[in-house]
Write a structure and sequence with these properties.
Length: 109
Amino acid sequence: MVEIGFQQIGLELGTGAVIGGLIGFTAKKVAKVIAVLVGLQLALFKFLESREILSVDWSRLSAGLVNASETAGGAATANQPPGLVTSFLSVIPVSAGFTGGFLLGFRRG
């Protein structure tokens, strides 16, 4: 049987919220920087292509991105952990705190 200690649940929830908030805040900042860099790179490619300095095969470039996302999505479902219910119950407090903190940090960031 799983023992429930409210102090332990509160500690895990709070720790998960703080860590999630920090990661959410950082993730939003990193995502903005990556978006700017990718946008600048695509603009540079388009500019160089318009000056006929560079030839970009846009269909091959986008096909590579689609294949990478399909490969990454398929790998996550290959292995199922044993004792799924027990594993799920043991991570609920940390996951709930992390999710709430992540969303708050991402929103405030």
